[in-house]
Amino acid sequence: MISVEEAIDIVMSQTIEAGTEKVPLQKATGRVLQENILADRDFPSFNRVMMDGIAVNSKAWQEGRREFYVEGMQTAGAPQQALSQEQNCIEVMTGAMLPQNTDVVIRYEDVKIEDKVARVSIDEVKPLQNVHLKGTDRKLDDVLIHKNQKLSPAEIAILATVGKHTVEVVRHLKVAIVSTGDELVDVNEMPHPYQIRRSNTYALQSALQAEGHEAQAFHINDEKDALETKLREIVGEYDVVILSGGVSKGKKDYVPEILEKLNVKKLFHGVKQRPGKPFWFGVREEGSSPTAIFALPGNPVSTFMCFYAYTLPWLRKCYGLNTQILEANLAEEFDFQPPLTYFLQVKLTMDQGQLLAVPVTGKGSGDLANLLEADAFLQLPSDRSAFKAGESFPVIQYRQIF
Amino acid sequence: MISVEEAIDIVMSQTIEAGTEKVPLQKATGRVLQENILADRDFPSFNRVMMDGIAVNSKAWQEGRREFYVEGMQTAGAPQQALSQEQNCIEVMTGAMLPQNTDVVIRYEDVKIEDKVARVSIDEVKPLQNVHLKGTDRKLDDVLIHKNQKLSPAEIAILATVGKHTVEVVRHLKVAIVSTGDELVDVNEMPHPYQIRRSNTYALQSALQAEGHEAQAFHINDEKDALETKLREIVGEYDVVILSGGVSKGKKDYVPEILEKLNVKKLFHGVKQRPGKPFWFGVREEGSSPTAIFALPGNPVSTFMCFYAYTLPWLRKCYGLNTQILEANLAEEFDFQPPLTYFLQVKLTMDQGQLLAVPVTGKGSGDLANLLEADAFLQLPSDRSAFKAGESFPVIQYRQIF
């Protein structure tokens, strides 16, 4: 058995090149950009009026003029006008081009207009006041968004502004989720007393959906031949296979031997952690591109934890993203004796800018319902058994709470 | 003009009843539950074996027996067996029913099986060890998930377990996003020097998508007749209309007068805030159900900020969700003189369980590109002008960083 740190290193060293694809801008939210986005013009692209009011020439102002004949109106979206007489003014609207021969905008609040004459009620103006000068935010050809940026609404706004109606992003890997276990029936079936309904495939599909990611779900019973036939197909067709169940010491835990038969190279089996000790990880290098196989223990809490602690960060790394490690402060002291990394279920709260983790211990890795009470796993290191209130530890969040 | 606090109170008092709909489990992630979910059986539903190994009767153990003849095997998903002789054992697999007449599971690691005889290598066992007792996690008819819960992968797992292949959730309101402004051309058009491309509708659509929410986008030029005709249609058809532009003091800012003409009741126009001062909000009560109208100022940063500070919390409240207010500590001192609530753009970082907000001041509400550098707005109150490092303030996050 290896440590959690070793397991993470091994998993993270096995990223798969995902390739790129083009998607329409309206489908790009949450995707990872695969091109640098340059400014197609200066930002702003002209001297832009920032307030509704009048535009004047500062020379006239300096010469003492406070009343200006209104020559015309410059609206947003109209070609640039020019002030013909320095002592006059032009009414200007927010978003319009500053008219030629003007350099000061005085807002309506400081002006009274009667009979086409604007009288200014303030005593001072600054040159270029209320003017957003061409190129002050960004210059033509500046890199606005760098490759590998995850696209949030702010980036979408910029992509629209520079005319990117299609965007080059990282292709999503093809993900299969496979549950095994004779005790499992589907959601719309009525289980016998000795059966339960499948939940892991639904949970993992949902977790991927929350990342904007599709996945195909399968179920295979614990029969060697069926497992081999079906897994051969799936491993051949998908980039990532997430299995749940069949990796422990049970008499019907056939998954590791079947995977080795399919030429999947085992990279580890067993991690010094609770839950999720029997976690098996391997890669098949055959064919045009490799397939990564995460064979997770079937207990629902183990599956859930291993997905968030290993598979999701790995997937993000394949896409060129770094997972920022969030830390939280333990709200009360906690003891855990076994020499294993313990992924403690916690509820997260925010107190005066401080992230607190309140332990919500359940009844072990079979206690699926306990996940409802918590938001995250707090990763407590294996080399200690007493953890004090106020100490800060990495947190693996599965519920967005803010 | 009213304060930000008053504006929030008014907006939040105008929630719209969204109604309910049924969706398939695979589409329920992110939705808000509209029914209580009860346990359809005990959790677990039988005395469940927690480890692969052998099941014995503790009476035999207490009488000193350490070698057990293996009578049979109880696998997961198979009907319950019974131990016929107290001095024997049955091999048991994780997830299986505990056989009748047994009450202790000893894991394979502590047992050696040869010639159908299991020899136990440990000296002590506890009654019911490695047995997950029926009903210890939850009882039949316990409420597992309460109405108004937002469905994350953990809830999806539970819904699958109790057989909810369709789920009753809050219906999504019909949202229209409408940009106005003659200076705006579409993303696939080449703007004239005095024009810019539309970005607000794309940004808001993306922000709603990130919430798993659809929205229809429209653009209307600054012509009174077109505005009236088109807005009449939209207000009649949608539950929520988010406008951007046309609400300031400009000569072509027709939106407020047109909305009043369409019998939209103005609830406020103008908020003591920067950005977003000209924000207009109203409700039309006509027809079968009311329509809420958020007429946001057209500057991209203003639109963005008002959406996240007002529209999104309002939408969540319509769906029965409370927005938890996140707080962050200002990383450096900051000054803002005007007597307005200032929504300062900040970059968020986590330092030892402490959320820090680093100011990223841009060049005003037209500086769209500055949104790229920041993650959130820090809400600085209007009654002060000096803000010290380490002070904590509410934060309105637009980018998920963890």
From TrEMBL, chains A, B:
Transmembrane spans: none
Catalyzed reaction equations: adenylyl-molybdopterin + molybdate = Mo-molybdopterin + AMP + H(+)
Cofactor: Mg(2+)
Gene3D superfamilies: MoaB/Mog-like domain, MoeA, C-terminal, domain IV, Molybdopterin biosynthesis moea protein, domain 2, Molybdopterin biosynthesis moea protein, domain 3
InterPro entries according to UniProt: MoaB/Mog-like_dom_sf (IPR036425), MoaB/Mog_dom (IPR001453), MoCF_biosynth_CS (IPR008284), MoeA-like (IPR038987), MoeA_C_domain_IV (IPR005111), MoeA_C_domain_IV_sf (IPR036688), MoeA_linker/N (IPR005110), MoeA_linker/N_sf (IPR036135)
SUPFAM superfamilies: MoeA C-terminal domain-like, MoeA N-terminal region -like, Molybdenum cofactor biosynthesis proteins
Pathway field: Cofactor biosynthesis; molybdopterin biosynthesis
Name of a matching Pfam family: MoeA_N
Residue span(s) of domain MoaB/Mog: 176-317
Record-listed E.C. numbers: 2.10.1.1
Keywords carried by this UniProt record: Magnesium, Metal-binding, Molybdenum, Molybdenum cofactor biosynthesis, Transferase
Domain of life: Bacteria
Known function: Catalyzes the insertion of molybdate into adenylated molybdopterin with the concomitant release of AMP.
Similarity comment text for this entry: Belongs to the MoeA family.
Entry protein name: Molybdopterin molybdenumtransferase
Origin organism lineage: Bacteria, Pseudomonadati, Bacteroidota, Cytophagia, Cytophagales
